[in-house]
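Cross-check.
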Amino acid sequence: MTAIPATRPTGGHRGHPTADSLSELPEDVARWERPALAAVLAVATALYSWGLGHAAIHPFYGAAIRSMADGWRAFFFGGLDASGSISIDKLPGAFWPDAVSVWLFGPHTWAAALPQVVEGVLTVWLLHRIVRAWAGPFAALIAALMLTLTPVTVALNRATIPDTALTLLLVAAAGALQKAVRTERLLPLITCGIWVGLAFQAKMLQAWLVLPVFAAVYQLAAPGTRLNRALRVLAAGAVALVVSCSWALIAWATPAASRPYLDGTSNNDPFTLVFGYNGLSRFSSDSTAFGAVAGTAASRTTGNTGWDMLINNTVGPQVAWFLPLAVLATVLGVLWRSGQPRTDPLRTGFVMWGGWLAVHTLVFSASNGNHAYYTAVIAPALAALAGGGLALFRSEYEAKHEPKPGATYEPKPAATYEPEAGATYAPEAVATYEPEAEPEAAGRRHLALPGAIVLTAVWALVLDWPTRFVSWLLPVAVMLTLCGVVGLWSRGPRTAPRMIHAALAAGIAATLVVPAGWAVSALNPLYAGATTSPMAGPVGKSYYEHPHHAPRRRGLDQPNARDTALLDYLTTHRHGEKYLLATQAAYTAEPLLRAKSEPVLVMGGFTGKTPFPSAQQIGSLVATHKLRYALLTTQRPTTPATTWVKSHCTRIRPTAYARQTDGSFLLYDCTPQR
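Predicted model, tokenized:
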């Protein structure tokens, strides 16, 4: 008789799934996995690239992108104008792909925004790959779809803002960490440090928020001795530090005359730019911390802080659709795997993504203010946790309803000795293994799947309720929820698998339909937010300032009639001067720089308060015939340089450059007296 091997659970509570069971790829899965992923990526590409010719080009960053495409000095140092006289107030790394795209394809709006589309689609693909290795193909597909349909992700990937590059690079770092934890190899951990360092080039200190989480995860879950794990974490941290500070070190070592003045600093120091202006000043009452230039209302957003910032009426509809599901998945994923070995990969994933979510939430809550799009960096964590959680809940649901196979053992052979008179012996009956009775709490785990679907659907109604923006989708969400939950709840021994799959699909669709409505709204400029603060739906300052029409957007090489007339006047009256003109703050120069790549001396940088150039430098440039015109504005603060212009230059009548009135702009001719 052939022996039937005993079937026993290999980990966790008996009868419950292991990490390996969640990440296995059954043979029949291969038929749907690739087409499904291709469909998700196609949806992501369509959402992120539709109408790209009218993408949200950030006025300040858009001007820099065009200038950076015109020369190596402006490119490497992030020069705001083609001559690279002053830099942008961020590190330039996130804008290098944009500048390369404009250099390759020309100064078109779609060319500047194309790298964001690529970065967004790559993030979806990479998250799918990482979650698949962690929690299986089902979880990976759900995570990719949820990330694709997160409204702030759609809005941001249609703009020119650094957070898309930041998110992509940090997701890549998470994938490298996951591989390092699983394999005990040093190279993936070093790679993780490199990715974090590159993310630092995109958004500076925000990239470091994941470091304590990554270090803790590796120390807690990676194989090897405690000392060996600690030494490896230190090595990877050192790599992250070196890569992070590489640009700042190069800028610091470069003579000031050979690079742009660093905007946002009072001392032209790259470390002040990173740790002061874009660091401490955002979390303290001292706006000049570490030598930073004090921010203005234009450079420092307020609001969207505090413990409830993720669920307020503005930020909530952007990113928080899967927040309750993610929190539930993190808590149950850790609790249910509490009896597993320290290196349990399934629990490790919940800790990593849950830590990512928690740390960002705490930092955002403590800052002086946040744009809604800042939260796009937590969208991958929410999607991964939601996908992994649904996969875990589904496995528990299946384990409850599928018949548990009994364990069988090899029958004992008949006795070979002589039996006593009248006694008979037969082979011992096949033993059947009966699993131990499960604890009452474990016996209710199958309820997590329908419960999570109901929770997520109800939460969608809560987020949409203040605006009722997609109220026509709410009945659809309710019906899908009912179909999904009733179908899962009423499962019996004779229920066809096809019916269970249909119920599960309906339940998952119920969680996606309302956020999808908000996500699609970002394709309409009326509901896409401002170019400086992209978001989806009828929320935010931009929407309330333009309740009946979309705000005007100017892309690259798209000047309006007023700017065209001014450029024509300046070009016609230019006689060999290095600079086309000097402007008071970037606000004044932005439309001109987006329209035409020319050397423009931006006095005061983005805020108008940066102490460059000095009044003496302006006087020297005018005296040596390198500068003739200056354009001032009443919308920015007076500086010594603008005071010099007003006292030494002649105001030009607006009719000379086809304007009826000055408005908030005043043009001066600084031709020196001969």
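The chain is about 50% helix and 5% strand. The first strand starts at residue 407 and ends at 408. Passed to J.P. for a second look.
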